[in-house]
């Protein structure tokens, strides 16, 4: 991690565009890509929590959580030929080649799911995949938000196979003829570069079809990404506490900073507990433990920060806006699971006769 910290310190003020791609060798050396194949999520998160204390750390962390929990998860499914993944040897070989490049810090892979007007529902996607008589696949898509997309070597595209009524995942290389790319950047965590991609009737080989039905994976992939976001948030709060602890000492100040430290510690402990479950059981779904308090602690920490006199988190720590932009309580998965959880609340205190 020392080499990565030194690398991130070396970029001039204001630079963000080249940070993630240029730091890939140091990221790989730090072991932050190991969870892409045989590494554990606990180890990944124990390192990820430190990134907000580094320059550019939150933006780099966003790139890592998208690479590991989203694109990386799909590659692992194909390579392991797990249920729902392609069983073609060509698909497995291609996925293994891509994974090897990612683990060794040689490449970047982006995933395109969201598109204009989809409102977070797969059923609203207009991207389509058509199986041709030759076995090749004709893709038409317009993806509006691809994290890590600006420098990606290739993309995973979620599109609807209208014949089977399934939302498959398809791989397309960056240099594929007819693929159009439009780069854009956010005002926060900009090191995780983004782009829009589109293509009309692009014909790809059959072994570029990786996953038959993304709808069976989408919820767990989203929750895995949010788990890493929660870890990044914990690191961000601890960085702020570390910075503010250099100020004047008073009982009131210790109480405020102590509460922030404790809240982040409680959440981080829960994240590691869930990470352990993911490591021990490949069939474990985060949905079993979700919600687990991330949204409540996020809101409480922001309330506490906003109560500190002469402290403006929006100007002093602008990358914190990331966590508001992807607030977990706004996701359809959160709403569904909270409703399900509420049924258990009603049972509290109801003792059954023995």
Q: What's this model, at a glance?
A:
The protein has twelve helices and eight strands.
Give a description of the structure:
The protein folds into two domains: 2-215, Beta Barrel (Butyryl-CoA Dehydrogenase, subunit A, domain 2); 217-342. It has twelve helices and eight strands. It has helices at residues 2-9, 19-22, 24-29, 41-48, 57-79, 89-103, 218-244, 251-280, 294-306, 313-316, 321-325, 332-345, and strands at residues 109-112, 128-131, 137-147, 154-161, 166-173, 180-184, 194-204, 209-211. Strands 1, 2, 3, 4, 5, 6, 7 and 8 form an eight-stranded mixed beta sheet that branches. β2 and β3 (137-147) form a beta hairpin. The chain is globular and about 75 Å long.
Topology:
Blueprint: H1 2-9, H2 19-22, H3 24-29, H4 41-48, H5 57-79, H6 89-103, E1 109-112, E2 128-131, E3 137-147, E4 154-161, E5 166-173, E6 180-184, E7 194-204, E8 209-211, H7 218-244, H8 251-280, H9 294-306, H10 313-316, H11 321-325, H12 332-345
Parallel strand pairs: 1-4, 2-4
Antiparallel strand pairs: 2-3, 3-7, 4-5, 5-8, 6-7
Helix pairs in contact: 4-8, 5-6, 5-7, 7-8, 8-9
């Amino acid at each position: 991690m020392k080499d990565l910290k030194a690398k991130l310190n070396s970029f001039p003020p204001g630079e963000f565009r080249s940070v993630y791609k240029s730091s890939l060798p140091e990221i790989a050396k730090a072991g932050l890509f190991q969870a892409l194949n045989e590494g554990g999520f606990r180890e990944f998160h124990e390192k990820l929590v430190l990134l907000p204390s580094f320059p550019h750390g939150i933006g780099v962390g966003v790139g890592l959580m998208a690479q590991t929990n989203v694109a990386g998860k799909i590659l692992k499914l194909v390579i392991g030929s797990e249920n729902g993944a392609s069983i073609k040897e060509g698909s497995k070989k291609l996925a293994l080649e891509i994974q090897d490049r990612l683990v060794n810090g040689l490449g970047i892979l982006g995933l395109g799911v969201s598109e204009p007007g989809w409102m977070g529902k797969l059923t609203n996607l207009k991207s389509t995949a058509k199986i041709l008589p030759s076995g090749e696949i004709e893709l038409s898509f317009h993806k509006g938000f691809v994290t890590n997309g600006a420098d990606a070597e290739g993309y995973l595209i979620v599109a609807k196979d209208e014949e089977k009524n399934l939302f498959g995942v398809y791989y397309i290389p960056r240099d594929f003829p007819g693929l159009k790319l439009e780069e854009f950047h956010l005002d926060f965590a900009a090191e995780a570069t983004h782009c829009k991609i589109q293509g009309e009737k692009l014909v790809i080989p059959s072994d570029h079809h990786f996953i038959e039905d993304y709808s069976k994976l989408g919820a767990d992939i989203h929750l895995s990404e949010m788990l890493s976001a929660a870890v990044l948030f914990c690191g961000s709060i601890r960085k702020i506490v570390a910075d503010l602890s250099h100020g004047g000492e008073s009982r009131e100040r210790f109480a405020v900073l102590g509460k922030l430290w404790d809240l982040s510690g409680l959440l981080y402990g829960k994240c590691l507990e869930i990470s352990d479950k993911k490591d021990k059981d490949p069939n474990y779904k985060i949905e079993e433990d979700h919600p687990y308090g991330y949204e409540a602690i996020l809101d409480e920490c922001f309330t506490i920060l906003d109560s500190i006199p002469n402290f403006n988190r929006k100007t002093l720590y602008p990358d914190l806006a990331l966590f508001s932009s992807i607030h977990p309580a706004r996701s359809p998965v959160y709403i569904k699971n909270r409703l399900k959880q509420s049924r258990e609340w009603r049972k509290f205190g109801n003792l059954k006769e023995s």
